[in-house]
Amino acid sequence: MAVPPSTYPCHLLPLFLAFFQGALLLFFALFVTYDKPSAEDTILVANQVYSTFPFFQDIQVMLMVGLGLLLTFLPRYGFSALTHNFLLLNFSMQWIHLDLHKLLISEFAAVTVLISMGAILGRVSPCQLLVMATREIPIYLTSEWVIVTCLGVLDVGGTITIHVFSCYFGLGVSKALFRATQKPLHPKETPTPSSDLMSLVGTLILWVFWPSFVAVLCQPGDAQHRAILNTLLAMSASAITTVVASSLLERDDKLSLGHLQNGSLAGGVAIGVVADMALPPVAALALGSLSAMVCILGFRFLTPLLGRKLRLLDQCGIHNLHGLPGIQGAAASVLAVLVASKDTSGSQPSQLSPARGNASEVLEGLQRGPTLFTLVQQ
């Protein structure tokens, strides 16, 4: 469980936070102010607020409530999980430029910290989590800039830049902290029916709001429309597949709540990198089903193997929910780009609409394809 208070200096957490907040207040007082927008800028900002802020609110509910409750599966760590989730989110969001789009980027940076925390949940102190956050956020921003801006990778839902990165960063932290010995599972770390129920409620909240997380940075219009529908299709398929796979793998055909809490979200992780592409609906369904199967098989076979062979602690199974489906989604995006680049015969070739202008040159010249709604009706 968490590190006993006697192993680190008294009042270290409030002193750390007070120093950080004081330095931030000084920085804001000296260097940060609001711009004076012109009449044209006012219209653009108003449009951005009306189009983006509802998505932003959905993401806030996901992170504050959904992800917080998802981490309460440890019966004696539920209060700490919610508190640490709330603390890390606020700590990680304040390193921003005063702009609604940048605020979304800061939210995504905070997501990486919250996902990485899942690997070491209940085994570290709050100060250790804050130290991890101070190191992870700059590294994430650098890697995101390299992947999106320099390499031109299209990743609207953060499958590669957020899920894969945060998974292996968290596993790296876990290996660095617990590489000497493999600590056995503590009896208090075994989920109870009530803690599993709270965690399942968090899963349901995440499931409902996940399309907003994927679609928020998409180009408004067809691309955003496709992202929402593709995400819903993938997550519906992953939820059904999770029930099937878990029932077949468990004794007496009983459904594992741990599998349902994670496998039903795997489709949302995998679809993010291709969500705004003009894919046929069956592709979203197939990707959601495959990601759920990979996630469940990872929990059933891979996690125990990594624990025995590599002494790797993965408390929440982030490798199965974020790492493996993220890699699967990245492979699907490569296949989609190759198929789109070879499609020269049809009068309506698919268009892969980039979510960010930095990567728009990658597929420049491709004609606009039909929306997913049109494909469904056809």
UniProtKB/TrEMBL annotation:
What Gene Ontology cellular component terms go with this record?
plasma membrane
Q: Which residues form the Ammonium transporter AmtB-like domain?
A: 46-338
Keyword Transmembrane helix present in the record's keywords: the answer is yes
Question: Which residue ranges run through the membrane?
Answer: 12-34, 54-74, 104-124, 145-171, 197-217, 229-249, 282-302
Name the record gives this protein:
Ammonium transporter AmtB-like domain-containing protein
Classify the protein's membrane topology as the record does: Multi-pass membrane protein
Q: Which domain of life, per UniProt?
A: Eukaryota
UniProt keyword annotations, A-Z: Membrane, Transmembrane, Transmembrane helix
Q: Does the keyword tRNA-binding apply?
A: no
Family note: Belongs to the ammonium transporter (TC 2.A.49) family. Rh subfamily.
The molecular function terms of the Gene Ontology recorded here are: ammonium channel activity
Record GO biological process: ammonium homeostasis
What Gene3D superfamilies does UniProt report for this protein, alphabetically?
Ammonium transporter AmtB like domains (1.10.3430.10)
Protein's cellular compartments: Membrane
